[in-house]
Specification:
It is built from six helices and no strands. Helix 4 crosses helix 5.
Length: 100
């Protein structure tokens, strides 16, 4: 779905309109998809966060490398799984933009 030089130069073209329409259709079709981790949390199962970001945190610590974003992600996912935080845009912003 890369834009051609013609698409980039044009403010409106048949090709560009078709690409936008396709992206909208795909977005509408999959708007209710959930990640496997969120699906696990919603089903009250243990999220796989320790196998993903937790591994990065522990290996980083083993090499003396700080991984604060990954650590924040692990803490946040566990908080969501425990029900002390909601899975929301605000929670995502707090993880990604802690000073913002």
């Amino acid at each position: 779905m890369a834009l051609t030089p013609t698409d980039k130069a044009a403010t409106a073209s048949v090709s560009l309109t078709a690409k936008h329409a396709l992206l909208l259709a795909v977005g509408l079709r999959y708007r209710r998809m959930r990640s496997s981790m969120l699906a696990a949390i919603e089903r009250k199962r243990t999220p796989a966060i320790e196998f993903l970001n937790g591994e990065v945190v522990s290996r980083g610590a083993g090499h003396g490398i700080a991984t604060p974003i990954n650590a924040r992600i692990v803490d946040t996912v566990w908080s969501i799984a425990r029900g002390t935080l909601a899975s929301s845009r605000e929670t995502l912003d707090a993880v990604c933009l802690p000073d913002g």
